[in-house]
Design goal:
Elements (H helix, E strand, L loop, with lengths): L4 H5 L9 H5 L5 H11 L1 H9 L3 H20 L5 H27 L6 H5 L2 E6 L2 E6 L6 H12 L1 H15 L2
Antiparallel strand pairs: 1-2
């Protein structure tokens, strides 16, 4: 029987029923070394020996994950990762709230829509479009096309219009 990463590290022959052989074959030497540096061989064996195989498998993956977290952040380890993720979540929630407020501002107009000569009025959740000047009458058709074909069709037509005007 080939030595597992743990037994090879300890320079011994893998005994019958070696709990580490199931989870740390020689192909996972780097992962074993991470776990060994953080937890130690004897602690890892103690953690795994009383668990059934499926629990051992999940526990080994958790040990590897935690060891990698400690390697990346030796001061805070997994807590540091958690805190960074928590900070990102808070920033994203703030951004979502700002975007929601921007969408709901009744007096504010989208500059592109204003540029095209339209005024939007909100009434009980519905948006009414009123054309202020007729400088660009195809815009109503564009809005209708966007509503039926989606944004992609609208942008595609804008690109075509821009390409045709440059010729």
């Amino acid at each position: 029987m080939a030595n597992c990463a743990s037994c090879a590290h300890q320079r011994r022959i893998c005994p019958e029923g070696c709990v580490m052989a199931l989870h740390f074959p020689r192909t996972r030497t780097q992962e074993f070394q991470l776990v060994n540096r953080v937890f130690g061989v004897s602690n890892a064996i103690k953690i795994l020996k009383d668990l059934d195989f499926s629990q051992q498998k999940e526990t080994v993956e958790a040990l590897i994950w935690e060891a990698e977290a400690w390697e990346q952040d030796p001061i805070c380890g997994p807590l540091g990762l958690y805190e960074r993720l928590e900070e990102q979540i808070l920033m994203l929630k703030e951004e979502i709230q700002m975007l929601k407020e921007e969408i709901q501002m009744p007096g504010e107009q989208n500059p592109v829509i204003q540029e095209r000569g339209f005024d939007l009025e909100r009434d009980n959740g519905h948006i009414h479009v009123q054309q202020q000047n007729v400088a660009n009458p195809s815009f109503v058709q564009d809005l209708e096309r966007e509503r039926t074909h989606g944004v992609r069709g609208f942008h595609h037509q804008e690109q075509e219009r821009g390409n045709n005007s440059g010729r």
